[in-house]
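Hi support team,

I submitted a single chain yesterday and got back a structure, but I'm not sure I'm reading the token output correctly. Could someone confirm the output below corresponds to the sequence I sent? I've pasted both exactly as they appear in my results page.

Thanks,
R.
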Amino acid sequence: MKKYLLLFVTGLCFSAVEAQLVKQGVQTPKKQSDLDWYNCSFDQDGVYGAEVNKAYEFLKEKKIKKRPVVALIGTGLDVEHEDLKQAVWVNPKEKANGKDDDKNGLVDDINGWNFLGGKDGRVMETITREGDREFFRLKDKYADYITSNGEFFKIIDGKRTLVPAPENLSEYVYYKTRVLPESEIAKKYGGWQIGYVIREYGDKFKSELETKYPGQKITKEQFQTCYDPNGPVDTLRDIAFTLIALGFQVYKTEDLSVVYENFVMTAVERAEVEYMNVLKRYGNDGREDVIGDNYLDIKDTRYGNNVLLTSDAALGTMQAGVIGARRGNARGGDGIMDQARIMALRVTAGKGEPYLKDMALAIRYAVDHQADVIVLPQQNTLYPEMQKKWMEEAIRYAEDKDVLVIVPAWELSLDLSKQLFFPNRWMTDGKELTNLMVVASSDKYGNPSMNSNYGAKELDLYAPGVSVYAAYTGDTYQTGTGMGLASASVAGVAALIKAYYPNLTGSQIRDILLASVTSRKGVEVEKGIEVGGKKTQDLFLFDDLCLSGGILNAYQAVVAASKLAEK
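Hi R., thanks for writing in. Yes, this is the structure output for that exact sequence:
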């Protein structure tokens, strides 16, 4: 049994703000309003928590009618944590015997499942990004095309050559406008192709100038004459001219020969090296070797393993702590609903973006194993159409089974009305997903996270997620900040409602949570935004940042649930 551990947090979706050395079984002497402040309320504690303690005062004469199941779809989980053992979900139809007792194709899925695991017990520690995966899927079709003035070219034997247009122009446009911006590998590959264009036009510029200024050293000023704003449109010539012109600044010279020798003549080789370096770094996450499935086949389902204590389990453990840690035992923070049962479904790793197949199958697994609330790891800007359909159908399946699905908004300071993220309530054709909630982090002072995405219609509400104290791997406890903690706060309150009012559906619970927030309407707050690709700040009314105009409130939610259940 470990008694001391110096804590630190790493992860894509989570950032720690304070490292602590915590002795097992001994609570730090700080007030609750400084630790698991999400349980507190402004009128009693002076912080904008979710009023969980106050909710329990209202519920003290009522009996719990079910132990709700919360499925954490994301990182791993420390299922042996001293403060979480009672809250870990156990598959009632499975035994730890190396057999598939419940005949679902997964062996020993006792507490959940790791979709990033192999049959030999190995797990994937990093995963690729969706944009890179799409690049590899479409590379042979479209990556070699260079377009200019409505014409299509490819580099053949080192020369730019006119070729017919791609057969599927709509898919080509998708590659250029959606995949290319999302993939660093695709950008570097495109830069390699542009290297040939730089060399081609660099030779042309040099020849033109030597004819125009025979026997002279060509200067930057003379090079500028290669650009004719009134000349015929030639997109590739303009691109090459601009890049070569920048070379004078990069090499701090007025001499074209310096730029030509160091930039033009080496453009192809340098770009190839850059592409190969980024390909080596991000091009292969080892899925084929570790798992061996086809990630583009939703019917290929029998993969993964039951290893849940992974190197990225810190966030999942903290989320579980917020939701279901034992209340009142003076160890760590109090969970919002410690009678909840937490199911761990791992689809994310230390780096990269979840495979949509894994998420869709995890949602279905959760629903089929009676989950009441599902927490997804993140939204994303790129959902390939076929895989988007998998997610649509999975979330709709959860809706049909009365399950609430919660997803946190990214911390990118983006306006969700201008930048489309998935999943969202309108991702299906013509029918809103009524069981899906998009949430973001707020702090104890009632302010939104400075960097969270926002949207008056697209973001539902804010919830405690800044400087939250909760269980951490290794029977320890940690203070951390992250969008995953906000979604855990919402999941905990949803589970609290479901425990006492089990007949309410996921869609009804979403409506209750939206209508029962601690209202911040009319309050002016500072918020991070992005303008022209640069981060800055501006002032907003709180109700312009999210649909509800407020912060998660468990007390008001259970009061509203009680009234609805009595009807």
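A quick pointer for reading it: Confidence is low (pLDDT under 50) at residues 1-27. Let us know if anything else looks off.

Best,
Support desk
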